[in-house]
Write a structure and sequence with these properties.
There is one protein chain. This protein has 358 residues and is an alpha/beta fold. The chain folds into two domains: 123 residues, Alpha-Beta Complex (Aspartate Aminotransferase, domain 1), CATH 3.90.1150; 197 residues, Aspartate Aminotransferase, domain 2, CATH 3.40.640.10. Helices cover 36% and strands 15% of the residues. The strands form three sheets. Strands 2-8-7-6-5-3-4 form a seven-stranded mixed beta sheet, sandwiched between helices. Helix 7 links the parallel strand 5 and strand 6. The longest helix is centred in the last third of the chain and has 25 residues. The chain starts with 10 loop residues before the first helix and ends with a helix.
Length: 358
């Protein structure tokens, strides 16, 4: 009898549609504006050359430097392989597969759904309102048996901040019943909006952070979970023994030094300047229907005949992220903010397209 290996896999994995990362989708070009990365490399180099020993489970220097950066105690911080691992650890620690439920509000980051499907955790969806804000009434009516509520602020892919009054209301409603996880992957582009100061008041609040965006270290895979000590202690029970390699911890500690943080803040200023310029230029394009305001390093744009625009730019080596198949994002393409030259090349290409029949 011939064995079909797929029959040995878990049923939910056989049905799973994996997250389509930018690198998984691919493309060929020289202007990559599809993955919300910083467009230029940073100057850090390895300072450690001894790799025969296992790393610390939670590198002390990285934790201490991040604690200093965000104004928390080291015991309130867990470091992981990107914020994606933080999403997963929360489900592993708090949700019983096949029994408990998470909730999230599309359009938003798809890894909340993919992670739940992978582990075997039920999920509920409450779509955002037309202005991308939370539907508080419907969320409130859907919270029964929900263990974890995920939200992204600023939100990916829409670029907007979630109304802080709505988050405050949800934290009051969920106290003692549900964890509220706020994904702040893009918060360095609008640091005044962070909820870190709320951790003291809300023991069920969890915040996710990363070095992938403003710190320009997407290739490093280093993220942070910020919460009060009881939550961190539980997450430590389910994290892998050595989540960060020695080279990752080495570069992360350099990025979190005073010069590293100063460099990041300069990069944020430069990128925000490029974003504002690109925003106003896009609004003048004939092929553009709507440009959504953004507090991040990307802009969501609704195009007329978006597939033709996406394909023609793709063929020219300008790689964007098509979002048009997702709920409520018909006609939308997400554009990461590149260098000034890359942004100008994009606008020039769109101007040419506007003169063509697309």
């Amino acid at each position: 009898m011939k064995l079909n290996i797929k029959d040995l896999a878990r049923a939910n994995v056989r049905k799973l549609i994996p997250y389509q990362s930018a690198r998984r989708i691919g493309g060929k070009g020289n202007i990559w504006l599809n993955a919300n990365e910083f467009p230029l490399p940073v100057p850090f180099k390895l300072s450690q050359q001894i790799f025969n020993r296992y790393p610390e489970c939670q590198p002390k220097l990285v934790i201490e430097k991040y604690a200093s950066y965000v104004g928390l105690k080291p015991e309130q911080i867990l470091v992981s392989r990107g914020a994606d691992e933080g999403i997963e650890l929360i489900m592993k620690a708090f949700c019983e597969p096949g029994h408990d439920t998470i909730l999230f509000c599309p359009p938003t980051y798809e890894m909340y759904k993919v992670t739940a499907e992978t582990i075997g955790i039920k999920y509920r969806i409450v779509h955002t309102l037309d202005n991308w804000q939370l539907n508080i009434l419907e969320i409130t009516n859907t919270l029964k048996k929900v263990k974890v509520l995920y939200m992204c602020s600023p939100n990916n892919p829409t670029g907007n901040l979630i109304n802080s009054k709505d988050i405050h209301q949800l934290l009051e409603i969920t106290a003692g019943k549900t964890l509220v996880v706020v994904d702040e992957a893009y918060i360095e582009f609008c640091p005044e909006a962070t909820l870190i100061n709320w951790l003291n008041k809300y023991p069920h609040l969890v915040i996710l952070r990363t070095l992938s965006k403003a710190f320009a270290l997407a290739g490093l895979r280093c993220g942070f979970t910020l919460a009060n000590k009881p939550i961190i202690d539980l997450l430590m029970k389910v994290i892998t023994p050595y989540p960060l390699s020695i080279p990752v911890a080495d570069i992360a500690s350099q990025a979190l030094s005073e010069p590293g943080i100063a460099l990041m803040r300069k990069h944020v200023i430069d990128l925000n300047t490029n974003r504002d310029w690109l925003f106003h230029q896009l609004k003048q394009m004939r092929c553009v229907q709507q440009v959504f305001p953004s507090k991040t390093n990307y802009i969501l744009v609704r195009f007329i005949k978006e597939f033709n625009v996406f394909k023609k730019l793709w063929d020219k080596g300008i790689i964007l992220r098509n979002q048009s198949k997702k709920d409520y994002l018909f006609g939308c393409i997400r554009i990461s903010i590149g260098t000034n030259e890359e942004c100008k090349s994009l606008i020039a290409a769109l101007q040419n397209l506007s003169m063509e029949k697309i």
